[in-house]
Amino acid sequence: MQSTSSARAHTNIALIKYWGKKNQELIIPTTSSLSLTLDRFYTDTKVTFDDKLTADTFYLNHQQMVGPIADKTFAFLKLIRQQAQIDTFATIESINHVPTAAGLASSASAFAALAGAGSKAAGLTLTKQALSRLARRGSGSAARSIFGGFSEWHAGDNDLNSFAHPIQENVTMDIQMITVVVDAHEKKITSRMGMQHALLTSPFYQTWVNEAAKDLVAMKAAIVSNDFKALGTLAENNALQMHSLNLSAKPGFTYFNGSTLEILDLVQNLRKQQILAFATMDAGPNVKIIAQSKDTATIIDILKQAFPHVQVEIAKPGHGLIYLD
Ligand code: 2P0
């Protein structure tokens, strides 16, 4: 017997970040987080369960994967098999339209697409909420990529109540993200390691938890009232607080490099010239500039003059998980 399904999921960038788990096995975060799903970066994944297979196989961008990435993927397949009560092996074929491991959150779109295609191919019919819970077990941020637009991952405290839900799938605000790739190499410290190290050793961790709760309330109000300036101000500040946890860990570390700080400075200077632009950074040196469509061309011109070699992409709000078959 053979059963196949294909799905596409887009990546998301957190405006209120997730940085630490209270349960590492189940991936239950210490705080709720909120993101914008983007149209520009996505993963297409096809999963085929076949009685004739004798092992799981994973092809990423047509290359067979072995090692930690394959192990994480096969562990996720086990969760799907448990839920579906089957013991058939599978072949996974993924095409990643995200620069892998460059701080552009490829694991979010990867595990959201795999949750969708894998569960359907295994014969399960899951609600979006159940898909979000399943995707969460692969990578926390994947829980949010099940939904389009603004998506909130409610932290919860157990496997059943930790899932994302849509805040506004059809975004009404004029908002775009300019991703500025200053370094496309793999990050040295994974998010998974970095966030737990910060949680265990930064003296400011509890303050982060308290501030994140307040930021989340204010962010939802900014979305509802279409207040771009409030959204950008909150997002930049929340990102800098997350990165200050890493700097204040013992030993301290950072995902930033010199270019990150120079671009952050450029974004803050844009605001002095009355161009509303805000920066957010994830587990890598690249910067995402939050901007309005009317300003993106000007911002890119100014960026390119200062940094002729950076790669720049414009991303708009994207939609949630879709099936391709
Ligand atoms: C986020 N990031 O909210 C935060 C901000 C990066 C910086 O979620 O351990 O790959 O697989 O749950 O989801 C990246 O962490 O970590 C991330 P795991 P994940 O988007």
From TrEMBL:
One of its GO terms (molecular function) is diphosphomevalonate decarboxylase activity. InterPro entries: GHMP_kinase_C_sf, Mev_decarb, Mev_diP_decarb, MVD-like_N, Mvd1_C, Ribosomal_Su5_D2-typ_SF, Ribsml_uS5_D2-typ_fold_subgr. Residues 178-310 form the Mvd1 C-terminal domain. Keywords: ATP-binding, Lipid biosynthesis, Lipid metabolism, Lyase, Nucleotide-binding. The keyword Disulfide bond does not apply. Residues 9-164 form the Diphosphomevalonate decarboxylase-like N-terminal domain. It holds the Pfam family MDD_C. Belongs to the diphosphomevalonate decarboxylase family. NCBIfam families: mevDPdecarb. PANTHER family: DIPHOSPHOMEVALONATE DECARBOXYLASE (PTHR10977:SF3). This is diphosphomevalonate decarboxylase. It comes from Periweissella beninensis.
